[in-house]
Design goal:
Strand content: 15-25%
Number of strands: 20
CATH topology of the largest domain: Aldehyde Dehydrogenase, Chain A, domain 1
Bound molecules: nicotinamide-adenine-dinucleotide
Strand order of the largest sheet: 14-15-16-13-12-17-18
CATH superfamily of the largest domain: Aldehyde Dehydrogenase, Chain A, domain 1
Number of domains: 3
Largest sheet: 7 strands, mixed
CATH architecture of the largest domain: 3-Layer(aba) Sandwich
Helix content: 25-40%
CATH class of the largest domain: Alpha Beta
Structural class: alpha/beta
Radius of gyration: 23 Å
């Protein structure tokens, strides 16, 4: 950026100083950044990813029996770009008749084609899908960012590579399933009904579809209503890969469509990822049926920082765990437990790092925190933050971060010195909101970390391996990271304790829920 444009930016910002926040921002440094409205002691030029590679249909159909078909319901709803609040496209709202068609197609494909193929042949399709995902990676990443609001850096460097990795990994398993349960005989189940949330739309689709197909099942998948577009692009990839008709069917819609999928008589297994509330509804509705069920639900995961941890590294891990991806991560490290002796130092470091976070256009490659996925989610986050403020937590947010005027954005923030009974210590916010409390002993840290209805993940930060192992053994969480956070790998099983659900996805354990083991 030239000196004159820097000056211009600064002058503009000074004009808006009336809101107080901008006045604070101008103190930070001489530089400026139009895309996020922040000032720094140096400049980032905006670096906006082009959207030209993506072609979004104005009206999107259902994917049934290998074709895109008009919904019997004849109804559509809008999907928005959360970065601007503008409509991106219309999505088909599948009703019971549409779900019936998808189920019949999946059932036919299972009996006539997919269950007759050898594991090696199924694996070849999965390898082909994985390779096309890699070839079309940029298109998938841009579409995911447009529909979900997550930073392009995240969709490009995390989501899409992991999606390809899941298909590659399960392609490898398809002809080796006897090793998933040594000494036993394994076979497929039939039609699988899968319902997924909006926070990792493509990745959740891959977590569900890849193991189901590798194990010889056919699929009816329902994506979340606010983020259906990338699943429909995945359907195009299935067509390109020549996947036999009906092996994967994608029905879009809201909760009623999801309920029609999970309750359908054709379904042998239900795999659900989403909120604990809906997970409980599904569990109740499946009780007494012989359908298999796995639930990946909410979380309130703890990050434990010991005084001997590498503090700057731990700060980065905490930031990554709760603020990147706007806190829209089921296993977000949303409760920070810091050893009392370093609490003040750590919190000051955290504040300093938060001041540097860049909130803004998700398509900008410099953006750390993108848009909240929907207006409804933003309202929910604001209301929970207001509850926290009313309850008296010590609230901090970097007020010099100015949010874009259009779209759905929220500043990263935390509540310090919170009690266990504090609403936000117990409730999943699913936004960039952290609670902080202290501990004095490892036993106290374990007790506090386990003091939750959930049990999805935890992070431990210490230089001492023995301490990490000891604490990990006491934690009731499905995934525990040591000196890192939010790292995923298809070979590693993922899942929760308590109200975070049951069953595992990924790795050998994840395969078992898609197989009949005799
Ligand atoms: P949600 O439960 O509101 O919706 C999830 C999906 O269920 C959507 O596709 C929705 O349309 C569908 N649905 C809604 N009502 C239904 C019903 N009665 N029957 C069947 N389907 C129904 O959750 P969300 O807001 O989309 O996602 C956020 C939640 O997902 C958070 O709680 C988060 O922790 C959780 N999540 C968990 C994991 C995990 O692996 N444990 C991963 C990602 C997200």
């Amino acid at each position: 950026m030239s000196t004159s444009s820097t000056e211009n930016t600064k002058v503009k910002r000074d004009k808006t100083a009336a809101d107080g926040e901008a006045a604070a921002a101008t103190k930070v440094g001489a530089g400026g950044d139009k895309s996020s409205g922040r000032t720094f002691d140096f400049d980032y030029a905006p670096s906006i990813e082009s959207t030209e590679i993506v072609k979004i249909q104005p009206q999107n159909k259902l994917f049934i029996d290998g074709k895109f078909v008009t919904p019997k319901s004849a109804k559509y709803f809008a999907t928005m770009n959360p970065a601007t609040g503008e409509k991106l496209a219309e999505i088909a709202d599948a009703n019971g008749a549409d779900v019936d068609l998808a189920m019949s197609a999946a059932s036919r494909a299972y009996t006539k084609t997919w269950s007759k193929l050898s594991g090696r042949e199924r694996g070849r399709y999965l390898f082909r899908i994985a390779r096309i995902i890699q070839e079309r990676a940029r298109e998938l990443a841009v579409l995911e960012t447009l529909d979900n609001g997550k930073p392009i850096r995240e969709s490009r460097d995390v989501d899409v590579p992991l999606v390809a990795a899941h298909f590659f990994y399960h392609a490898g398993w398809a002809d080796k399933l006897e090793y998933a349960a040594p000494g036993r005989t394994v076979s497929s189940l039939g039609v699988v009904g899968q319902v997924i949330p909006w926070n990792f739309p493509l990745l959740m689709a891959a977590w569900k579809i890849a193991p189901a197909l590798a194990c010889g099942n056919t699929v009816v998948l329902k994506p979340a209503e606010t983020t259906s577009l990338s699943a429909l692009l995945l359907a195009e990839i299935f067509q390109e890969a020549g996947l036999p008709d009906g092996v994967v069917n994608i029905v879009t819609g809201a909760g009623a469509t999801g309920a029609a999928v999970v309750n359908h008589s054709e379904v042998k297994k239900v795999a659900f990822t989403g909120s604990t509330e809906v997970g409980k509804i599904i569990m109740r509705s499946l009780a007494g049926t012989n359908k298999r069920l796995t639930l990946e639900l909410g979380g309130k995961s703890a990050h434990i920082i010991f005084e001997d941890a590498a503090l700057d590294q731990a700060v980065e891990g905490v930031i990554n765990g709760i603020y990147f991806n706007q806190g829209h991560v089921c296993c977000a490290g949303s409760r920070l437990l810091v050893e009392e002796s370093i609490a003040n130092v750590f919190v000051e470091k955290l504040k300093a790092r938060m001041q540097k976070l860049r909130v803004g256009n998700p398509l900008d490659k410099n953006t750390d925190i993108g848009a909240i996925n929907s207006e409804g989610e933003l309202k929910k986050i604001r209301s929970l933050v207001a509850t926290g403020q009313a309850e008296g937590g010590e609230f901090f947010e970097p007020t010099d971060i100015r949010l874009p005027e259009k779209g759905y954005y929220h500043r990263p923030c935390f509540f310090n010195n919170v009690a266990a009974a504090f609403t936000l210590s117990r409730t999943e916010v699913f936004g960039p909101v952290l609670t902080i409390s202290t501990f004095r002993t490892a036993q106290e840290a374990i007790a506090k970390a386990n003091d939750t209805q959930y049990g999805l993940a935890a992070g431990i930060w210490s230089e001492k391996g023995s301490k990490v192992y000891k604490v990990a053994q006491g934690l009731k969480a499905g995934v525990i990271w040591a000196n890192t956070y939010n790292k995923f790998d298809p070979t590693s099983p993922f899942g929760g304790y308590n109200e975070s659900g049951f069953g595992r996805e990924g790795g050998r354990h994840g395969l078992l829920s898609y197989l009949e083991v005799k």
